[in-house]
Specification:
Length: about 400
């Protein structure tokens, strides 16, 4: 069943959007047993940070650090940005498509001037699941991200495997400073976003004729999935055969909250790329950010009853270079009755993947692990690649 609210359009000043653009990259929130490695280069690249126990200590900025312009990424013309459309009608969550991206920063900048586009392969409401892939896959973005920039590489990759892919922009309206800025979604409370996701998933199930969906969530997308399963009807503990979800893949998910100690460091890293984020680190970030702090009421509420719900298969992917979800091991889940959990650390068997919290969403290895989690027989462990992926930007 679908519900809708009236569509509103707003245009904001370029200076405000530039500040918010950085803030968005400073805080999306999402995080375990390795897979087969392939050949590695003779000289391994320097890691983006030093791992000391459960803490990540990023290197200080240097003059040699790459800038966005050095990567051939053109700055967007903010003045020509399309107004963001905010809607709760599942079929109009996105309009049109953006290009496939292998670089997170490029996708992020593109979405600033094209805030409503979907990633390639997503949101074909006429798509019918195949016998090989009988369940549609719903992609849930992170805090201050959106459907396009978070999945500009993963969505087309999954579509090529034959899945029906759906991606919404959730949590895109609240009273905070960040919540009123173009292209920055996932700022509303996690509880309200879970209700929105429930409506969306019911619409996907109705359109595809599938009783169940699979979910892939990055950062907050992992936590809001748990909220949806536990409190918004995604799971049915009395009769797990009636679950609306079969498989959950959490990618750097803020599953148990985070200390948020890495946000300032992440801001400095992005600033060193030539984008001024430091001016908005103190901005009001929206209810979703406070919901994801360790020991928040929402996190404590989800802890009651354990990490998992019966009848659901979980894969949790984390990176030891995650500087946003800290300590990174807090992303991992413990299986409860009737559930299975596979915690995967991205670097196990592939030390050259230097993905951090942002760039893990465009990591070829992470995408391979997602494919394996969704279809272990069709995409076996040996097919998961090991490839270099840089922090912040990715490929």
């Amino acid at each position: 069943m679908t519900t809708s609210r009236s569509t509103s359009r707003t245009t904001r000043k370029a200076t405000t959007v530039r500040a918010a653009m950085i803030a968005a990259m400073a805080c999306s929130l999402t995080l375990g047993t390795g897979v087969a490695a392939q050949a590695q280069p003779a000289t391994a690249p320097a890691p983006p940070a030093t791992v000391q126990g459960d803490s990540v200590v990023p290197p200080g900025p240097t003059e040699a650090s790459p800038k966005a312009a050095d990567q051939g990424i053109a700055q967007p013309n903010i003045e020509s940005a399309a107004p963001a459309t905010i809607t709760y009608d599942p079929r109009t969550e996105t309009t049109g498509y953006g290009p496939e991206q292998t670089n997170f920063l490029a996708g992020f900048l593109y979405s600033i001037v094209n805030p409503n586009v979907a990633p390639q392969g997503a949101n074909d409401w006429n798509c019918k699941p195949s016998a090989a892939h009988p369940r549609p896959v719903v992609l849930l973005h992170g805090t201050w991200e959106n459907a396009y920039n978070n999945f500009a590489r993963m969505s087309p990759a999954l579509k090529k495997e034959g899945y029906c892919i759906f991606a919404l922009n959730y949590g895109d309206k609240d009273s905070s400073i960040v919540g009123n800025l173009e292209s920055l979604r996932g700022t509303a409370s996690v509880a309200s976003s879970a209700k929105e996701i429930a409506t969306y998933i019911d619409a996907v199930r109705a359109a595809t004729g599938s009783a169940q969906v699979d979910i892939v969530g990055h950062s907050q997308g992992g936590l809001v999935t748990r909220q949806y399963l536990r409190f918004e009807g995604g799971a049915n503990p009395a009769d797990p055969t009636k679950n609306k979800v079969n498989t959950v893949v959490s990618v750097a998910g803020s599953n148990h909250g985070t200390t948020l100690v890495g946000i300032g460091t992440l801001g400095r890293t992005i600033n060193n790329l030539g984008l001024n984020v430091l001016g908005v680190v103190g901005a009001i970030a929206g209810p979703a950010a406070s919901d994801q702090v360790i020991d928040s009421d929402l996190v404590k509420g989800l802890a009651v009853g354990g990490d998992t719900d019966p009848g659901i298969k979980y894969t949790v992917i984390g990176t030891k270079y995650d500087e946003v979800v800290t300590p990174y091991k807090t992303t991992f889940l413990t299986a409860g009755p009737g559930a299975t959990v596979n915690n995967v650390t991205l670097q196990n068997g592939c030390e050259i993947d230097l993905s951090d919290h942002l760039s893990i969403s465009v990591s070829p290895r992470a995408i391979g692990i997602v494919k394996n989690a969704l279809d272990p027989k069709g995409f076996p462990t040996r097919s998961i690649p090991c490839a270099f992926n840089s922090p912040i930007t990715g490929g």
